[in-house]
Amino acid sequence: MLFVDRPGWSDEAFPPQVANRSITFNDKGSRTGVCVLATDGPADLHFGAAIDAYQQVARYRFGKDGERVDSITDWGLKQFRQAYGLNGLLDPARLEAPDRG
After folding, report:
1. Is-contact 26 52, C-beta < 8 A?
2. Whole-angstrom Cα distance, residue 22 to residue 4?
3. Cβ(31)–Cβ(52) under 8 Å?
4. Per residue in 56-92, pLDDT tens?
5. pLDDT for the residue 75
6. Which residues are CB-contacts of 70 (< 8 A; sequence separation ≥ 6)?
7. Is the dihedral of CA 19, 60, 62, 38 positive or negative?
8. Can you give the pLDDT at residue 101?
9. Would the pLDDT of 48 be above 80?
10. In angstroms, how far is CA 6 from the centroid of its own chain?
11. How many CB atoms lie under 10 A from the CB of residue 7?
């Protein structure tokens, strides 16, 4: 789930008394370097700079009935495993040779 200042989203991602990890990161158009925050609650989406855009991605979202839905789809997990293997490390055979030009 991507947090984009949508009212009520925090209730879906961070209901009371429920743990849920998330990652907040700056937009690719940001004027600063990479800025990342891991948290277990809603983050200020301008924590790194007042006018740069940030996005928050929560691991789970929760329905009105409290049902927990994983934000990592089967397709996404398959893509990750193809790129990084089951142990989460990039396969050295897939690394590109550095540009020495």
Report:
1. yes
2. 13
3. yes
4. 889 999 988 889 999 989 998 888 888 877 776 665 6
5. 92
6. 59, 60
7. positive
8. 43
9. no
10. 16
11. 6
